[in-house]
Write a structure and sequence with these properties.
This protein has 304 residues and is of the alpha+beta class. It is 15% helix and 36% strand. The protein has 5 helices and 21 strands. The protein has a 5-stranded mixed beta sheet with strand order 8-15-16-11-12. Strands 17-18-19-20-21 form a 5-stranded antiparallel beta sheet, with no helix packed on it.
Amino acid sequence: MTREIHLLLICCLLALGPSLVTAQGRQVHGLVNDASAQPISGARIELAGAFEAARSGTDGRFVLRARAGDRVRVRRLGFLPVEFQLPDHGLNAQDPIRVIMQTAPEQLAGVFIPAGHGTPMGMSASRGTIRQVPPLGEPDVFRVLPFVPGVSQPNDLLGRVHLTGASGDETLLTLDGHPVQAPAHLTGVVGAINVPSIDRVEVFAHHVPATTMSRAGGTIALTTRELADRFSGDVSLTLLSASATATEPDFLGGTGVLLSARRAYLREVMELVAPDRARGEPALTPSFQDGLVRLTNRIGDVVT
């Protein structure tokens, strides 16, 4: 009885063998080439809607288990993808499927990296950065510089700075490339540079460009505000003074102008609060004023 069952199972397997092979698919040999008949290695060959996949070898050949009528996708970086359908009949495992892939050259656009205002071993601070530093009475360019490495101050009261250990006269201060002789009011307590009129301040302590004037200690270069496309204004009111800054790109027939003025008002406040004391000791009341005018035309800049 057992022998008869074994024979029956063998007959069933022999009868269902072709159907099982067809259901599971058969090994399909293929070859992936480019347009010049050169083999393509590393191409991924996969069946649509199935987990079956293979990769081509160095000779471009691959082996994939597939069935008649399956859709095959071939992909490779640098080539256009190829998709085709296996024939419904006549699928011969001995006859390899040839896949021709066309190159897909990619033209990379140029990458432009704009250079900043700073230079190697140099530091730069913008107008916005200066205004964010807690001021002593009002925002001051020279109160920001001690945050830069290599810059120091004699004490917390005086805004005078020393660059890399050099004395005050060994550091050059420039405004748009022009030397500035007296950059502070009240013997160095308050900077004479109105912050709204400044675009940036650069410190060159160890590396000074050949086109920049310098001294033994280095250079502190102030650059005034750039002219916008249209009129712009800035009004500032602090504990010590009031200031106004305006820029006009088209003034007097194509000449751009930058106007900036600042004036201390503590003396006026003292006269209102304590008029007798203000008149009796006027020297003890801090007072200062400064202004900046820059004209820009086709010839160049004129700074006053």
